[in-house]
Design a protein that fits this description.
The protein is α/β, with parallel strands linked by helices and about 190 residues long. The protein has 2 domains: about 60 residues, Winged helix-like DNA-binding domain superfamily/Winged helix DNA-binding domain (Arc Repressor Mutant, subunit A, Orthogonal Bundle), CATH 1.10.10.10; about 100 residues. The chain has 6 helices and 7 strands, in the order H-H-H-E-E-H-E-H-E-E-E-H-E. Strand 1 and strand 2 form a beta hairpin. Helix 1 crosses helix 3 and helix 2 packs across helix 3. The longest helix is centred in the middle third of the chain and has 38 residues. About 15% of the residues are buried. InterPro entries: WH-like_DNA-bd_sf, WH_DNA-bd_sf. Pfam families: HTH_24.
Amino acid sequence: MSKEVLDEREFELVNIIGARLGSNQRDLSRQMNLSLGQTNMLIRRLVSKGFIRISQLNQRKVKYLLTPKGIAEKMRKSVKYTLNTINSIGLIKERLRGILSRLHHEGERVFYVLGKSDFVILVEMVFAEMAVEEYTLTKIAEIPLEHLDGILLIGEERLPEGFNGHRYINLVEELAKVNDPLMDKVYQN
């Protein structure tokens, strides 16, 4: 295993070369939003570190290839990224469990979750894992005009308009709180 660590730009270039065999330097610089000179410097650095090699196709054309060391580094970083993502999802689920448990403990039984994102799936998963009884969870695509008989869980970064007196919790904001007396407030409009 290599002790050399690739910086962000170097790893980005390794990924691009790994995905697009045969890209020329101009294409690489465009994809990375770098000058040709900066791209050339990165390529030379990666060649000297042994992560890529250059194959001369003809006098004017070269091909950039990942070496076994480059492939191994790409795989190592991809696995590390995947594990970090899985850990982050676990932390989000744990914080979400705290919010939903507290609401349920305080007597909330009717929940509406707004949105179509993967966040909605996380809310469903957490409720299923909590194994609580006596609750309803309804997915809605938009905020209804009529009054909701429960609490609206919003899993979108931008708050939609039209709350019309609905009680709601902005889950994104609550999950992002650093000081976490889990959720001090249910917003009232």
